[in-house]
Specification:
The chain is mainly α. It has two helices and no strands. It is flat, with a radius of gyration of 17 Å.
Length: 78
């Protein structure tokens, strides 16, 4: 079971290492950069429509998580 940071034995003085997640973080940042570049190249009206749509979807998934649904997952294919 994954614990929240405040549930760790060494809270609030816990330590962590980026070594195990560094490659995934760099991959994620690269993908975000590409998406940002694509969005910035879109005409303003399409950019706004996409941004609103993505925001609405984020709110929908956030509310589902608040209700206890565990059917959410980010899948970044390499």
């Amino acid at each position: 079971m994954i614990l929240y940071s405040w549930q760790q034995n060494d809270w609030p003085n816990f330590t962590y290492s980026l070594q195990n997640v560094e490659d995934d973080l760099f991959f994620f940042v690269e993908k975000i950069g590409k998406v940002t570049g694509i969005l910035n190249a879109l005409p303003e009206n399409i950019h706004q429509t996409f941004t609103r749509s993505a925001g609405n979807r984020s709110i929908y998934h956030f509310r589902r998580r608040q209700r206890g649904s565990t059917s959410y997952r980010i899948n970044l294919k390499r």
